[in-house]
Specification:
The chain is α/β, with parallel strands linked by helices. The protein is built from eight helices and eight strands. α2 packs across α3. The two termini are 34 Å apart.
Length: 249
């Protein structure tokens, strides 16, 4: 049983109506259905999570903090808790949406974590405070940060990671080649249709995300990580326009 299936999951119908589209936000409406939304909108989401927490286990160490920046409803934190076993680490979830943190708090309380944890409301553009981290996960989060701030955000994360620690980054990406970019997006929309989203829902969400989610090219994300000071950077997951990177200090 996964952490998402262990608690009640509401079906995502946010873009099912004909109402006017506004910029996407992680409000109470989205938070309530987020677990269903992300599982139907992100290809291989469960596999991404499994790979992420396996890599977290490889770097987690005693007397350290493990951060999930953009923790949403706490799914990754719950999986990390189970995966790292007897490692004496504190789990810290950070999100700028109080509605998401409310969902995370309820989920983690219901699941009952064995490691100490805390949830923090913070805006990564301004309030990001990372310290004594053996691992930081940044899953489908940096893409929502304003590009002007991304270099500063990654540098702050690097400065908070202990020597021999790591950052795990998963992002939606774009391609410089317009042919492949178009093909990858088409296949991504086919994926969403297979998961029950209508063409109207796909179009309305695309419109809502247009000025909110700004993907970088893979090469740009690698450059961000290396320029911040990470010595080793490698791709650990790739599906068309989604990519996972691990960066070790």
């Amino acid at each position: 049983m996964t952490e998402r299936s262990a608690v009640a999951v509401l079906v995502d119908k946010v873009f099912e109506t004909e109402r006017k589209v506004s910029d996407f936000s992680f409000n109470a409406e989205v938070a309530a259905v987020f677990d269903d939304m992300v599982s139907r909108s992100v290809p291989y989401y469960d596999e991404m999570q499994r790979m992420t927490v396996e890599l977290v286990r490889d770097f987690a160490c005693d007397d350290s903090n493990i951060y999930d920046v953009g923790c949403s409803t706490g799914t990754t934190l719950a999986l990390i808790d189970r995966q790292i076993g007897e490692v004496a680490a504190t789990l810290v979830g950070i999100d700028n949406s109080r509605e998401m943190l409310k969902q995370a708090g309820e989920k983690l309380a219901q699941l009952g974590l064995q490691h100490p944890y805390e949830l923090q409301c913070a805006d990564i553009h301004r309030d990001l405070a990372i310290k004594n981290a053996s691992v930081v996960t940044l899953l489908l989060t940096l893409q929502f940060a304003r590009p002007l701030y991304r270099e500063r955000i990654i540098r702050r994360l690097f400065e908070g990671v202990r020597p021999n620690g790591c950052l795990l980054l998963i992002e939606k990406i774009t391609s410089e080649d317009t042919l492949f970019n178009r093909l990858f997006i088409d296949h991504y929309y086919d994926f969403k249709r297979r998961n029950g989203y209508s063409d109207m829902e796909i179009a309305k969400k695309r419109e809502a995300l247009e000025n909110v989610l700004i993907p970088y090219r893979l090469e740009e994300n690698i450059e961000l990580l290396k320029n911040a000071g990470f010595r080793h950077v490698e791709v650990f997951f790739r599906w068309y326009n989604f990519c996972g990177l691990i960066a070790a200090r």
